[in-house]
Automatic annotation (TrEMBL):
Substrate binds at D55, R79, G101, R158. Pathway: Metabolic intermediate biosynthesis; chorismate biosynthesis; chorismate from D-erythrose 4-phosphate and phosphoenolpyruvate: step 5/7. Its EC number is 2.7.1.71. This is Shikimate kinase. The keyword Metal-binding applies. Keywords: Amino-acid biosynthesis, Aromatic amino acid biosynthesis, ATP-binding, Cytoplasm, Kinase, Magnesium, Metal-binding, Nucleotide-binding, Transferase. Pfam families: SKI (PF01202). SUPFAM superfamilies: P-loop containing nucleoside triphosphate hydrolases. It is an enzyme of class 2 (transferase).
Length: 199
């Protein structure tokens, strides 16, 4: 696992911590810039679980950036590497996984993430995504004259896919990422309690 910056954890109750004992993997999906990596690290620290970012794992193992892989192998080549990584990470136990925005385009990736545990969709608007990604040169699909148009097309096509596969949908706006992470923990806690007949 590649080295990660230290991120804070959130205060949760002993009862919430106990509820998560039987929860398998928690996988975050959503468009680029939705906050998957930052929120994922906070979740992992809070729940005391290992954290993996599929893009970062690919970069760590290949020694090449995502844009470089796109340039050399094309998007198809990157998606093949991504599928292998998603399959490997989904087979781990009780980890938090952040996926690349396009990982859900392949049915086998969706199936692997669903089989591995709970899937959380971080949903936000294309306009908000542009604010978060406009200066990021590690987003090869946005290196064009109309990045907002690209994000709108991605959102239109992928939003139904994210929504259909997700166990939980959380809308992210201008709030703190810690609030988003806590919202996810509360939503999962309610789902577990409901599934176990505790509510």
């Amino acid at each position: 696992m590649s080295k990660k910056r230290i991120h804070s954890s959130l205060p949760i109750t002993a009862a919430q911590q106990a509820l998560f004992a039987d929860v398998p993997n928690i996988s975050l999906v959503g468009l680029m810039g939705s906050g998957k990596s930052t929120v994922g690290r906070i979740l992992a620290n809070t729940l005391k679980r290992p954290y993996f970012d599929s893009d970062e794992e690919i970069v760590s193992r290949t020694g090449a950036s995502v844009p470089t892989i796109f340039e050399i192998e094309g998007e198809a080549g990157f998606r093949e590497r991504e599928a292998k990584m998603i399959r490997e990470l989904s087979e781990k136990q009780q980890v938090v996984i952040s996926t690349g925005g396009g990982a859900v385009l392949r049915e086998d990736n969706r199936a692997a993430l669903k089989a591995g545990g709970l899937v959380v969709y971080l949903s936000t608007t294309p306009e908000r995504l542009l604010v978060r990604t406009r200066y990021d040169r590690n987003r090869p699909l946005l290196q064009n004259p109309d990045p907002l148009g690209t994000l709108k097309k991605m959102h239109e096509f992928r939003h139904p896919i994210y929504s259909q596969m997700a166990d939980i949908i959380v809308t992210t706006g201008s709030g703190q990422v810690s609030q988003v992470a806590m919202h996810i923990i509360e939503a999962i806690s309610k789902k577990i309690a409901k599934d176990q007949g505790l509510t």
